[in-house]
Structure to design on (119 residues):
């Protein structure tokens, strides 16, 4: 059921402490941790503690938690000191867009030039 932890979800396991992660921030509704395969010097994932398969379904069901994810993304950028130089927040939705874990999450990327369009 949406919103409930999923036994086969890697990110739900991180939230529950079953899988280790390098956590950089945690709130009542979110967890932020370093990506294990970083694409930039700063590459942190911000996830809601509730399970929704993607950002759109999270925002539709729990807009306050979706706002928390975005707020925490900004705080991660400030903590990592990339907010002054610029950073990117990315939500991949669907396998064709590169989503590999189907639990809503934001990628916070910074610390190097980020080209446009991304590719």
């Amino acid at each position: 059921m949406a919103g409930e932890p999923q036994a086969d979800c890697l990110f739900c396991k991180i939230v529950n402490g079953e899988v280790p992660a390098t956590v950089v921030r945690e709130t009542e509704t979110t967890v932020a941790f370093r990506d294990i395969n970083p694409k930039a010097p700063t590459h942190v994932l911000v996830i809601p503690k509730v399970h929704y398969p993607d950002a759109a379904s999270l925002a539709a069901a729990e807009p306050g938690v979706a706002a928390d994810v975005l707020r925490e993304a900004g705080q991660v950028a400030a903590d990592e000191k990339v907010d002054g130089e610029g950073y990117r927040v990315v939500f991949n939705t669907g396998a064709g867009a590169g989503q590999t874990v189907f639990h809503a999450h934001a990628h916070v990327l910074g610390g190097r030039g980020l080209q446009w369009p991304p590719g």
Remarks:
- Residues 30 and 48 are 4 Å apart (CA to CA).
- The chain has one domain: 10-110.
- The radius of gyration is 14 Å.
